[in-house]
Amino acid sequence: MNNRADSRLSAELEAAHLLLERLGVTPEQLLTGARPRPSMPTFEEYIERVSQAVSDSTRRVYGTYWTKVCEVWGSRRLDEPTPLEIGQLTERIRKQALVRRNSRGGRTAAEHLISALRCVYRYAVADNLITEAANPAVRVAKPRRLASTRRGLHDDQLAVILEVAGTTGNDPNLDTLILRLHIETACRRGGALALHRSDLDPDQCLIRLHEKGETVRWQPVSPALMTALLQHGEERGADSLDDQVLRYRSGKPITRRRYDYIWARLGRHLPWVAVQQISTHWLRHTTLTWVERNFGYAVARAYAGHNSGRDAGTTSTYVRADVQEVAEALAALTGEAHPLVRGPKAGLGTCAGPLPLPER
Q1: Does a structural domain hold residue 199?
Q2: Residue 223's domain is classified under what CATH number?
Q3: Residues 306, 225: Cα–Cα separation, whole Å
Q4: pLDDT tens for each residue of 267-302
Q5: What is the spatial distance between Cα 327 and Cα 337, in angstroms, rounded to a whole number?
Q6: Which of 78, 144, 246, 337 has the smallest C-beta neighbourhood within 10 Å, fewest atoms?
């Protein structure tokens, strides 16, 4: 008899918990008399508010997927979809993903959709609209990432890419400068586009890179590249400290489309570039691979701007490289002395000759 009563009580308690969860009320609020959570907004209403709260880069990545969510669930409340429904929507988006030559079965689209929903629900939890336990997006697993097909380029491959970039197109000087910047610094595309006149330190040959995750770091560059960046900006109208450095001949700042143009052109002249889908990020792989092989893992991490130590274990706390060591690696890569380097390591010239710069 007691067992039956206990079972019935357990079932009733579970039913009460489910009811409170649907109402958005916690047992603690019943005891303390706290006010219930605000009324639950729809996806269309709340995504618009979240979009205004995130950074431009986050909005650029997630915006497309938030639009898709609003098309399907725009009038639904945030607390309505279940993990199963999110999984079904993810599969639908994955199948609808554009098929490109470098497509990987829509995995990126599926991952971005789940990340976009998790972003929305993180704000909903912070706004006390739902509890962390009631967050359906965290209970949907992201697709497992496949190994990257990118790799470092050989010296002869890099040389022919630079040669074609500097002898073809409507602005070879600009394109050569862009590629030289990425080879020397291993920066991401966003870092190069965010480079302003105020980010150049000619005395110490350092540039300030603003990259993903709102990270900011000072990266050594060769004196030749610093001179080229200053001359380029001066000739093309980057007069103010707030002006973007990389510009067209018209004086208009370049955008991501310039990179698309560069690699599409290189692919027409060099079929293997198009077949392997080589992009600017391959240059990052090339430089960092060279630095790691010649100067070790710690210097390569610093060169890449990966000094958080989050994914490298406790040891990285004690073997962190500094900007001078990065400058030593750069001096060896370019064969040029650097102001931050004192001693014989400057200008080792272990790479295949000096890197080319735009002709004046």
Answers
A1: yes
A2: 1.10.443.10
A3: 23
A4: 999 999 998 889 999 999 999 999 999 999 999 999
A5: 9
A6: 144
